Amino acid sequence: MNPELGNFALALACCMAAGQAILPLIGANRRDARLMALAPALAVGQMIALITSFACLIHAAITNDFSVQNVAANSAVSKPLLYKITGVWGNHEGSVLLWAMILSICGGAVALFGRNLPSALQARVIAVLGGVAAGFELFCLTTSNPFARVWPAPLDGQGMNPLLQDPGLAFHPPILYTGYVGFAVPFAFAIAALIEGRVDAAWGRWVRPWAVAAWCFLTCGIAMGSWWSYYVLGWGGYWFWDPVENASLIPWLTGTALVHSAIVVEKREALKIWTVLLAIGTFSFSLSGTFLVRSGILNSVHAFANDPARGVFILGLLALVIGGSLLLFAIRAPQLTTGGLFSPVSREGLLVLNNILLCSICAVVLTGTMYPPFMSLLFGKTISVGKPFFDATTIPLAIPLMVFMGFGPMVPWKRAQMWPVLRRLWWAACVALLALIVATFRMRDILAVLATATAVWVICSSITDITERLRLFRQPLAQSWQRARSLPRAVFGAALAHAGVGIVVLGIAGMSQAAHRIVEVHVGESEMLAGDSWTLTDVHPAQGPNYSALVATIEVRHNGRLITTLHPSKRTFASQHQTTTEVAIHTNLMADIYGVLGDRHGDDANPTYVLRLHYNPLAPWMWLGGLIMAFGGALSLSDRRVRVGAPRRAKTVDVVVAQ
Amino acid sequence: MTRKSRRLWLVVACMIGLGSAAALTLNAFSSNIVFFMAPSQVHAKPPPADRTIRLGGMVVAGSVHRETVKDSPVNLFDVTDGQAAVTVRYEGILPDLFREGQSVVAVGTVNPDGTFRASEVLAKHDETYMPKEVAEELRRSGKWDPRFGKAPDAASWNTMTAADTKKPATQTPDGN
């Protein structure tokens, strides 16, 4: 009964989304207040229907309803409860439903929090969101229905890939998806602005919080995904430059550019057309990233051939959304009034540089990701590009980006002089120079040295930005405290986010110095790595809820003093005939000590074990920095300027609309 | 600054940004593209010793053995595409899903003596998975059609005829 209820709710949501896409648009065109008022109501209704539908699917998974094919294929009675719930979005059908649900929540959020928007703009934004939602709900209903029944119902499900049974991965997809889908709101604002034919400072101000919110989630999602691959896959690295990972990095890069260019729209009414294009581009990359890469259409021609209906539907939908919005952009963009030009040495000038460099990096990553599949499709040549390619292309572009990033927040708007800025930043430059010298002696790679120096530069200049604004150490502390309280939170947020980038880059530079060894030892033997002595003291079997394990004990000593005891293990899941390695990590925040247990060899009386030992300096900084970045974004969202003082449109509104 | 020079500045900045991106990409492509090769291709035309390639095929059943060199484990195994086999030498832990008779991709260089020194061995974390390149190569050599179920045992390949691949393979419990 419940799966049918869920299916019905999904179909209902699809109908409401279709209504939401059409009626408010007509209303906004005819200035019919009643039709426009339908938009928020339908958006909230669609949200409730989809949440109901998703809850039904979770209910089916918890109650082991194996007559639902999706549950039978991905769950099992013996699976722990947490993974029964999270397993719902661990497969194609469930993740499409989750995607649609988050989109409907975005629509609901615009309906509930967007009350201070002009009603025509709000109606159009919700209508665009409804149109996208209707397409994907139809896709979900017709080609990947998570509620499809199977007959006869199996007694037990096939279970989930043990690799996915991990708390880190359990919450990674919803957060990442919220990031992806969140960019639908700036996209809808961009389309609504194109339909209206105008973009002004108020538009920039409305769109920015949505972009920042989506950016925070995407940042968090990427950091979590990278952390998961670091501690679950056990290969000692953190980023594989795999198409799936790049699919999340590309919208992050354009989304970061969008967050910055929207500031220029808000403050200076310039870069308007560019910002609209970025909003469209970011959501287009999110869409194609999730659906093309995740469904494996690009990676493997077979996945496409296995289910042609699904592939054709998704390609058609993508072509409609992306092509349609670009067509609208091509028709309408020339009618938008262009903003003023400005001098290179100014805040807006540096924000333009930020956009150029971010988009260059994005272009490089996009090329590296798309070139191999296109070569194999067009010429039948199988090639691949990996870490060396991406290192050689992205880092040289990221270094100037970081250098300008240090100046950015310190340079005033409109017209600035370089000299006063340099005078305030001299100590940051000195510290960065010091870091450069120290790094030259400690690191082998020139790019890692430069990355370290620029990362230190960014962190120091963020600190300078705050201390200068507070007049810290130049005024009594009480006065600085007063200033800190009156300073908008967005300023702190921006400084934190910038410092977070510096911390991430320091972590990446530190990881380039990581050391690792693969050894084969008897129990009791020691090996040296990075100045520490690693001793395998014990290996014993253990039993888990749905697996059996072999657990090793490794003692790590520095000059005879015990630092930590690691317990890496190897699990065998009987139901899936699969083994997984459980990494043991000890961190002191400056470095990770990382141990992996490999195969057992030799006779039973005197076996040897293969161990992989890693010493990863500054590794935790990468994820810590990512969280700081997201927190900075959240802090700037909590700025009271976002909530109160609803921005008013310029006086020319009525004149332009009446045309 | 005049309006004209400001516009010029913007255009120049864009050109520099995208130009350097293009230059970096082309430069990196010329040295960092990794080609995929099947064992028979390696035999026919061995790549230069400094060129990294991806070697893909099936692990020949019974060919995996190990040595220990200076406390480090070294794995040796043969990879075949049904026409030729290449011996792969890999220092490190083989992935969890590395099995004899299953597909594998090794990244590394070809030694002058024709053996392959792998820096990385990939076996995807999925039993039914076969790297696309490997499947493509097997199909080209007429040994297997992926539409008809799981790949046959690698040990039988050199004796297999093209006719064998036409009949659907028996369904295995987890092959569906």
UniProtKB/TrEMBL annotation, chain A:
Cytochrome c assembly protein domain: residues covered: 89-295
Presence of the UniProt keyword Membrane in the record: yes
Annotated TM spans: 6-26, 38-62, 96-113, 125-144, 175-195, 207-229, 249-266, 273-292, 312-331, 352-374, 394-413, 425-441, 447-466, 487-509, 618-638
InterPro entries assigned: CcmF_C, Cyt_c_assembly, Cyt_c_biogenesis, Cyt_c_biogenesis_CcmF
Recorded superkingdom: Bacteria
Gene Ontology terms for molecular function: heme binding; heme transmembrane transporter activity
Main localization of the protein described in the UniProt heading: membrane
Cytochrome c-type biogenesis protein CcmF C-terminal domain boundaries: 315-640
One GO process term, biological-process aspect: cytochrome complex assembly
Gene Ontology CC annotation, any one: plasma membrane
One Pfam family recorded for the sequence: Cytochrom_C_asm
UniProt keyword list: Cell inner membrane, Cell membrane, Cytochrome c-type biogenesis, Membrane, Transmembrane, Transmembrane helix
Membrane topology type: Multi-pass membrane protein
Annotated localization: Cell inner membrane
Keyword Oxidoreductase assigned: no
Cited PANTHER family: CYTOCHROME C ASSEMBLY PROTEIN-RELATED (PTHR43653), CYTOCHROME C-TYPE BIOGENESIS PROTEIN CCMF (PTHR43653:SF1)
Function, in words: Required for the biogenesis of c-type cytochromes. Possible subunit of a heme lyase.
Family membership: Belongs to the CcmF/CycK/Ccl1/NrfE/CcsA family.
Protein name stated in the entry: C-type cytochrome biogenesis protein CcmF
Automatic annotation (TrEMBL), chain B:
Record field: transmembrane: none
Membrane topology: Single-pass type II membrane protein
Localization (cell): Cell membrane; Membrane
Binding site for heme: 125, 129
An individual GO BP term: protein-heme linkage
Keyword set includes Chloroplast: no
Gene3D superfamilies named in the record: Nucleic acid-binding proteins (2.40.50.140)
Cytoplasmic side: 1-7
Intervals, Extracellular compartment: 29-176
Residue segments, region Disordered: 139-176
GO cellular component: plasma membrane
Keyword annotations: Cell membrane, Cytochrome c-type biogenesis, Heme, Iron, Membrane, Metal-binding, Signal, Signal-anchor, Transmembrane, Transmembrane helix
Main location: membrane
Function, as annotated: Heme chaperone required for the biogenesis of c-type cytochromes. Transiently binds heme delivered by CcmC and transfers the heme to apo-cytochromes in a process facilitated by CcmF and CcmH.
Family statement: Belongs to the CcmE/CycJ family.
Protein name: Cytochrome c-type biogenesis protein CcmE
Source species of the chain: Komagataeibacter swingsii
Phylogenetic lineage: Bacteria, Pseudomonadati, Pseudomonadota, Alphaproteobacteria, Acetobacterales
